[in-house]
Amino acid sequence: MDCKWFWVFLVMMLVSLGEGCWEEERTALLQLKHFFPNSYGYFYNWVENSECCRWERVMCDNNTGRVIKLDLWDVRDWNLGEWYLNASLFSPFQQLKSLDLSFNYIAGCIENEGFERLSRLSNLKELNLGVNNFNNNILSSLDGLSSLKYLYLDINRFKGAINIEGLQSLKKLDMSFNKIEHFVSPKGNK
Ligand SMILES: *[C@@H]1O[C@H](CO)[C@@H](O)[C@H](O)[C@H]1NC(C)=O
Ligand SMILES: *[C@@H]1O[C@H](CO)[C@@H](O)[C@H](O)[C@H]1NC(C)=O
Asked: What is this structure's pTM?
């Protein structure tokens, strides 16, 4: 009998785990939204004590409740001008597969808080940094993102020689509309 109730309890616990978003991720999302001020109400339902998997621009895995996709494109008021991102803000999303930060006027990352901070996100397959003001300085910080398959860096301020040899799994790279002269391939050829 006792045993039966134990199983009922266990099943109920697993079901409730399967539904809610993770507290740690909700906290991280609430912190994140302050870096994207806008007057369009884009984060209207990003509020305390609500189910963050239902928030606009957030997608979770339906089984684990972990955030797997963040669609944060064009969410910061352009009138605020360029700014520098703290990439560590995304490190709590350990299951993240896709991150879209395009159209946000980002000029780079703050010192020691670049994309190298996300090297432990081993599921990150897609990163969209298109239509920002990034320049060559961020390239080395992308090297650690070894699971990346799709990387969008179009319409930014990259120029000259580009070396992305660290990105071994890459299937698609879009660097159109920059001032690139050539790519340095892994073997040092041009
Ligand atoms: C989770 O379920 C919702 C509602 O059924 C669905 O719209 C969404 O696409 C699912 N998410 C994933 C990642 O499959
Ligand atoms: C960057 O964000 C992380 C995570 O929120 C925080 O711990 C760290 O202090 C921030 N770094 C700076 C320089 O603000």
From this structure: 0.86
For 160, phi then psi, to 5°, come to 70, -140
172-174 and 106-109: which strand pairing? Answer: unpaired
Ligand 2 center–CA 93 separation, angstroms: 15
Tens digit of pLDDT for each residue in 94-120? 999 999 999 999 999 999 999 999 999
* Residue 168 Cβ < 6 Å to ligand 1: no
Whole-angstrom distance, CA of residue 103 vs CA of residue 78: 9
Stated length of the chain? 190
Give the pLDDT score at 50. 92
Of ligand 1's listed atoms, the one at least distance from the Cα of 62 is: 1
3 state SS of 37? coil
What is the CATH code of the structural domain delimited by 21-184?
Answer: 3.80.10.10
Instruction: Report how far ligand 2's centroid is from the alpha carbon of 115 (Å).
Output: 13
